[in-house]
């Protein structure tokens, strides 16, 4: 059992440093990445821009898909309502076009 824990102790533990930048500041990420690599070998800098961009794209796609589904639902509702209304009024031309499930 002691051997199992010894293996866990040998694993490298990542150290994270969170840097908050003022909203009005524009940091030079490339220079910061270069300086960090010079000072701390093996260190990496993750600015999360790529991840945030993918999340924004995915959220926008989900919203657009939801709007499309709503538009299709409203269009289908209007079409069914039109055919049922035509059957109820006894319109001879429209009644043969209406769906069989309209029992208005």
Description:
By secondary structure, the protein is mainly α. Helix content is 62%, strand content 0%. The chain is built from 4 helices and no strands.
- Kindly name the structural category: mainly alpha
Unreliable stretches: none
Q: What oligomeric arrangement do these chains adopt?
A: single chain
Shape: elongated
Termini separation: 76 Å
On the 0 to 100 scale, the average pLDDT is: 79
Element pattern in H and E:
HHHH
* Helix-residue proportion: 55-70%
User: Care to count the β-strands?
Assistant: 0
Main attributes?
single chain, 4 helices, about 60% helix, mainly alpha, about 100 residues
Question: Could you provide a short overview of the structure?
Answer:
The protein is built from four helices and no strands. It has 104 residues and is mostly helical.
How do the strands and helices of this protein lay out in sequence?
Layout lengths: L1 H9 L18 H11 L9 H40 L3 H4 L9
